[in-house]
Amino acid sequence: MDNFKRVRHTLAEILDLDEGEILPESYLVRELDAESIDLLEVALALSTEFGIEVRDDEIFLKNLRILIADAGENGVDPVVAIVENLPHIQEKRAGEMVADLADGPVLQVRDLVAYVGHCCQ
Amino acid sequence: MDRIVINTGMEGFHLLSSVSLVDGLQIRGRAALADPPSLAVMECLAQLGALHVRRLHDFSKHAFLLKVERFSLAGQGRIQGNLALSGTLVARSQAAFSYDLGAEEAGKEVCSGRFVFSVTAYDDRFPKDLLMNRYKELFACLTSGSGIG
Questions:
Q1: How many domains does chain A have?
Q2: Which residues span the domain enclosing A113?
């Protein structure tokens, strides 16, 4: 089973959703209504499923806005700051995140997939 | 907002009487329950697991019970007496910790379950000065005489 299917299965169980409702581009908070307590469970379940120690700050992009604000203050390109600090995020995706910030939390299912894939390398 | 008063029906909040083993994955301890409210043993297990989580973080974070995933009782009677408690860390992330916890009395399992804990930074609600020292002292008291450093 590929990583997306395994992540989707985990999310479906914890968020009580049908797997068909969960797409790679689904926003966890905006669309799937994941709450902070759900995310704790997701981190634990992914740790078990993939045999990795999930760092909640990184997988859930908890410091993303601080990172971008700091980059702005220091004259650093926010996309570069994201890629340097969150190595599982590709440059293209980082650019999408920066453009998407105003609409709310940017975390998508594919970001979790990228994280577990990066940890399992 | 109305104040909520919770009465446990017990004399004290801390139910553990000793901790005999702690390492990175396991914790064992004891609790002596005399005529406790029903399911007080569940609170014992939660306290044991939370203490292990606090120890893992060297008491630098506040730990709390997030969820009881499953819990089963071996019999129908109220659990009391001198209980041997044990817990094993079965999965963890940066902020969540899953334990298999159980209790035995006279060598027979009386209950077991899977408990999930989380940690959070100390703040206004959970003041560091108060709680960090409090749980450090509690841990020292519970482990005194057990040989645990």
A1: 1
A2: 3-119
Question: Does residue B91 fall inside a structural domain?
Answer: yes
Low-confidence ranges of chain B (pLDDT < 70): 1, 6-12, 145-149
What is this structure's pTM? Answer: 0.82
Residue B3 belongs to a domain: no
CATH number (domain holding residue B124): 3.10.129.10
Q: How many domains does chain B have?
A: 1
Q: Is A54 on the interface with B (CB under 8 A)?
A: yes
Does B98 touch chain A if contact means CB atoms closer than 8 Å? yes
Per DSSP, what are the bridge partners of residue B105?
B83, B108
Buried b vs exposed e over A25-52: b needs ≥16 C-beta within 10 Å? Answer: ebbbbeebebeeebbbbbbbbbbbbbeb
Per-residue pLDDT of A82-120, as tens digits, reads: 999 999 999 999 999 999 999 999 999 999 999 999 999
- A37 close to B (CB below 8 A): yes
Contact A41 B67 (CB under 8 A): yes
Residue contacts between A and B (CB atoms, under 8 Å):
41
Residue in B81, B83, B53 with CA at minimum distance from that of residue B66? B53
ipTM of the prediction greater than 0.85, yes or no: no
